[in-house]
Amino acid sequence: MRIDIITVLPELLSSPFEASILKRAIDANLVEVHFHNLRDYTTDNYKSVDDYQFGGGAGMVMMIEPIDKCISGLQAQRKYDEIIYMTPDGERLNQGIANQLSLHENIIILCGHYKGVDQRVRDKFITKEISIGDYVLSGGELGAAVLCDAVIRLIPGVLGNETSALTDSFQDNLLAPPIYTRPREYKGMQVPEILFSGNFPEIEKWREEQAYKRTQERRPDLLEE
Ligand code: ADE
């Protein structure tokens, strides 16, 4: 998979890809992540990427020309499955969207800033708009990092244990059950006996019950979906 990220702040985005699972995925050539600084696609001396809003109003708007140059240049080199715009008014990110995106070959992620982008960018180029939650960030970069993490870990071969992504919270609309590790007893706090029984079908049943109970208590909306 190849991910091209278009941003005015590439420095804000680099560190999540330089550690742990994302770094391993890149080092193993399971994913390529390329950053494109929008200012490199400007034509004026000031490297302007934004301008005043037509009709008046506070806040600057990202201009279409540098974005067009960047996206058109990328499209001339390969076909993109999806061109995503990170915005609080997009579809709220969930596991289903991450699963779908992880199957793609090439995607572009455009990070918004200021008031957002000229509507004509959205009309002409964007195929999917994604929000990471109902709050406003100062730019799309952190949202793009969240999206990339959620997607990249699903690419086959990225996680050591192939099954572990499948037992994540949300993968089957259930939250994850409680988990424990050593020591067996800590300051009087015990680990549930069932986990030492060696009876794996019973352990699996217990985990499913706990997952269901936790979901019912914390996120009953997931059970209705
Ligand atoms: N840009 C600003 N806020 C955002 C959000 N909640 N999700 C994605 N991109 C954003």
Automatic annotation (TrEMBL):
It is found in: Cytoplasm. InterPro entries: Alpha/beta_knot_MTases, tRNA_m1G_MeTrfase_C_sf, tRNA_m1G_MeTrfase_TrmD, tRNA_m1G_MTases_N, tRNA_MeTrfase_TRMD/TRM10. Residues 1-224 form the tRNA methyltransferase TRMD/TRM10-type domain. Keywords: Cytoplasm, Methyltransferase, S-adenosyl-L-methionine, Transferase, tRNA processing. Its EC number is 2.1.1.228. Pfam families: tRNA_m1G_MT. It is an enzyme of class 2 (transferase). SUPFAM superfamilies: alpha/beta knot. Its main location: cytoplasm. It catalyses: guanosine(37) in tRNA + S-adenosyl-L-methionine = N(1)-methylguanosine(37) in tRNA + S-adenosyl-L-homocysteine + H(+). Gene3D superfamilies: 3.40.1280.10, tRNA(m1g37)methyltransferase, domain 2. S-adenosyl-L-methionine binds at residues 112, 132-137. Specifically methylates guanosine-37 in various tRNAs. NCBIfam families: PRK00026.1, trmD. Homodimer. HAMAP family: TrmD (MF_00605). Belongs to the RNA methyltransferase TrmD family. This is tRNA (guanine-N(1)-)-methyltransferase. It comes from Gaetbulibacter jejuensis. The gene is trmD.
